[in-house]
Structure prediction request, 348 residues.
Amino acid sequence: GAVVEFSYDALPGRVVFGPGVARTRLADEVERLGARRLLLVASRRSADVVAAMVEPFRGRIAGTFDAVREHVPVETAQAAREAAARADADAVLCIGGGSTVGAAKAVALTTRIPVLAVPTTYAGSEVTPIWGMTENGRKTTGVDPAVLPRVVVYDPELTASLPRELAVASGLNAMAHGVEAFWAPRRNPVSSVIAEEGIAALASGLRADDPADLLRGAWLCGAAFAVAGSGLHHKLCHVLGGTFDLPHARTHAVVLPHVLALNAPGAPEAVARTARALGTADPVRGLRALADELGVPRGLRELGMAESDIDDAARLTEPAVPADNPVPVGGGALRRLVRAAWAGEDQR
Ligand code: NAD
Prediction:
């Protein structure tokens, strides 16, 4: 094929994966990191599970922060940093979903101490150097290598406790990382291969309700997204979540087939790889069929979006779409996409 120019920055980080590793390997990983005074970040929800997990090295827990909140409000970031200072922490151990990882990243951003992450959802934040914070309802994100966890311990026994609806939403959120990685601004041959493998693992994990496949897929798709960056799909979902307050993971699930439908004519590699990963000829139909099978609503209107918000959503998203999106989004194309995603119908 044609030689395409790209540049690729591989991200560092150690991954330990396996059923039970949070029980059997975590103490060794703390030791390996050389951490003596850990700040433990975990939500109250999981207090019992977390207490058992850290029991083998509880002498090294110098402080705890459990006031985790969604989208890391600046007050939460500040409180977590104060907890780290009080504990004189030399590392952060976070155990939880994307919100918990987000609080740990907020600490690392200012203190520069390393993060050890034990994810309990499929959000993928643990493999990205991206931090996010909200102030007065506005979300700010940035990239800093200091927030990328040094070690990730992936244990599918932990995600097994996710209620089915959360697991589905989170798994499809992860799938969006993979599909978007095919056309995102820093896509490259490595991220594309990883994304295809990740999508396949997620599809089988979602169908079979298999936490190990789901977690492996979430890691791979998160890793692809981490190097490839955000494209049209994430820019649109960011606006829908941030400005119109739609639920993060389910919004991704509804929007993804529509973005793929729009981009498909200009993105043959995305089409071919997604089709192969889903084991279908038509990946847009494949994604829809999977979402239907999993009981995901078809349209954003079912998630509470008002028809009158369609124009604003398109207008706010357009300037953020990367210039090299596979198809142009001007001339009303984005509005047609948002409208179709709102109605749950094909784009016309
Ligand atoms: P979350 O962390 O808020 O968790 C969702 C809910 O699931 C919470 O109520 C939580 O208590 C519960 N939960 C978590 N693990 C569970 C388990 N094993 N069993 C039962 N319940 C469990 O949500 P999320 O989807 O994991 O993360 C979303 C957040 O992460 C958003 O703020 C998003 O912006 C951020 N995020 C950031 C990046 C990044 O690269 N920086 C990437 C993806 C997501």
Q: What stands out?
A: Residues 17 and 154 are 5 Å apart (CA to CA).
